[in-house]
Every structure is written in structure tokens, then in C-alpha cells.
Specification:
This protein is mainly α. The chain contains 6 helices and 2 strands; from the N terminus they run H-H-H-E-E-H-H-H.
Length: about 150
């Protein structure tokens, strides 16, 4: 499975909203600038996330976007699967298909199911609050200390 650019941008947009979780709407251009994304593409992605119930929009001069739910309850898996469908590393082999008679199909089918389940488990177990917490900790630990 390859995460599409669109899905990567959706994850980055949700992350940016979780990072700035102040209760105030964030303008599209601020999200796009912070995450180095095209403002137009960011608007399209945010609109799609809005239809999925992941973000809310506010109109007006002080408007923008904010998370529709708490970042601690929003998982990476939800956003990935909403934007690009179920997580799957290999396409399913149908019975009687071109690969049906090959030796090892059942063994590899089991292997790929385990790998898919592991990836799903990691993405399901990681919330955007977790990602923000990790990023803040990483930035704090890399801060330069000039004390003598």
C-alpha cells in the first residue's frame, strides 16, 4: 500500500489542526503555509474532511477550520481509510483467479493478512493527540541549551 499524496496532505492538515488546538478556527492559508502545501489543494482536502465529519468550518473574518472531534479520539487509520479506502498492502486474490494454482498462495495470503493487521493496528492505536505529543517531545529534546 502506498499512501497517496492526497492522503498525506489530509493527515498533515488534521495534524496541523490538532497541533493548533486552541478552540479557534485556523485559516486554510495558515495550514497550507505551516505544512508547505498548496492552498487550493489544502482547501479541497479540508472540504472533503469536513464532509467526512473530521473537521468543521467557520465562516467570516475570523473563520477557518477546526477539528470536529477531540484529537485524542481521532485515529490515523480513520483518516487514511476515509481518504483512500481500507489499508491493504496487496490486492486480494480471488478464488480461481490467475494466481490460484501457485504453490505458496495460502502461506503468503496468511503472511500478508498478518502484515495488514499489524499496519492497521498501529494506525488504529495512534491518535492525532499522540502525534502532537510525540512531536512536542521531540522538539523539546532537541532544543539547544546555552547554559554555562
Amino acid at each position: 500500500m502506498k499512501i497517496s499524496k492526497k492522503c498525506q496532505y489530509a493527515l498533515k492538515a488534521v495534524f496541523e489542526l490538532a497541533w493548533r488546538n486552541t478552540g479557534k478556527p485556523v485559516k486554510t492559508c495558515s495550514i497550507a503555509d505551516a505544512q508547505r502545501m498548496s492552498p487550493r489543494f489544502t482547501e479541497i482536502i479540508l472540504n472533503e474532511l469536513k464532509h467526512g465529519g473530521y473537521v468543521e468550518s467557520r465562516r467570516g473574518n475570523t473563520g477557518g477550520y477546526l477539528l470536529a472531534r477531540d484529537a485524542a479520539s481521532l485515529t490515523v487509520r480513520e483518516v487514511i481509510e476515509y481518504i483512500q479506502g481500507p489499508i491493504s498492502l496487496v490486492p486480494e486474490v480471488t478464488e480461481g483467479g490467475a494466481n490460484a494454482a501457485f504453490l505458496g498462495n495460502e502461506a503468503f495470503k496468511e503472511l500478508w493478512e498478518q502484515v495488514n493487521n499489524a499496519v492497521c493496528e498501529v494506525c488504529e492505536g495512534r491518535t492525532f493527540a499522540d502525534l502532537v505529543q510525540f512531536e512536542r517531545a521531540a522538539r523539546d529534546s532537541s532544543a539547544v541549551n546555552y547554559c554555562i
